Amino acid sequence: QNVSPVTNAKQQAYDMRREGMEHKRSLSTGNAALESMLRPDGSTPDNSPRGTKRKNEGDDDSDEEPHDEVRLWEDGWRERYYVSKFDISGDNIAFRYDVASAYVEGLCWVLRYYYQGCASWKWFFPYHYAPFASDFINIGDLKIEFERGTQPFKPMEQLMSVFPAASKQHLPEPWAELMVDPDSPIIDFYPSDFKVDLNGKKFAWQGVALLPFVDEKRLLETVQTVYPLLTEEEKKRNTRGDDILYVRKGHKG
């Protein structure tokens, strides 16, 4: 089968998006008709059958398309994207190159992780959003190197870097206080309110949580002040142990 080349990528993106919405509407209409046929006489549509998965609060099945301020199918999409997602002018070529370079580093990190092991425990992608493929310019000239000799966080350090303050009960009390004490040197790592960018999606859980990136140096310096307060049991819990492999009896692998 011969496939026609794409002559207008923006128009095709728009057409595909509209076709997807129309397909979703047709499925919703068909499902509603089927439910109506299967519903016993006298019952109401609000009677949920036993075992039906309940929706998350705030989920809405309406066909209204989510707000999309970038509009990839319209001229100016690149500029709108960088202004909206990075608060940077779309003609800032140097910034776009920095984002693309960091993304390529991430691709290299992932490949090395799966084929050779962790390249660096300190590396992270320092942006909430990805660049466009068209921003991958001169990436062959990049010299990708990762810091060697790094070590992973200890268990409680890791929890401090990923938990919200609402989960502080899983940490020793002095450590948990660092998440809620207004005078904590790292209180800014644990905002109670933060923006969730739907980024063209429909539900909050699909969006991008715009949380601050944890500063490793500040975190480690701060937790050093509460390390002496760990109990013996907590110290044991905070060590990196051996990997354990569980297999069934009779396993011959």
Structural commentary:
With 253 residues, this protein is mainly alpha-helical. Helix content is 37%, strand content 2%. The chain has helices spanning 9-38, 77-86, 93-115, 155-162, 173-180, 216-223, 232-237; strands at 196-197, 208-209. The longest helix is centred in the first third of the chain and has 30 residues, at 9-38. The radius of gyration is 25 Å and the shape is extended. Residues 58-67 have a biased composition (Acidic residues). It comes from Alectorobius mimon. This is 5 3 exoribonuclease 2 homolog.
* Mean pLDDT over the full residue set: 86
Q: And the CATH topology of the domain at 155-237?
A: Serine Threonine Protein Phosphatase 5, Tetratricopeptide repeat
Which strand order does the major sheet show? 1-2
The CATH class name of the domain at 155-237 reads: Mainly Alpha
The helical percent reads: 25-40%
Keywords: Exonuclease, Hydrolase, mRNA processing, Nuclease
GO molecular function: 5'-3' RNA exonuclease activity; RNA binding
Pfam family, one: XRN_M
Biased composition (Basic and acidic residues): 15-25
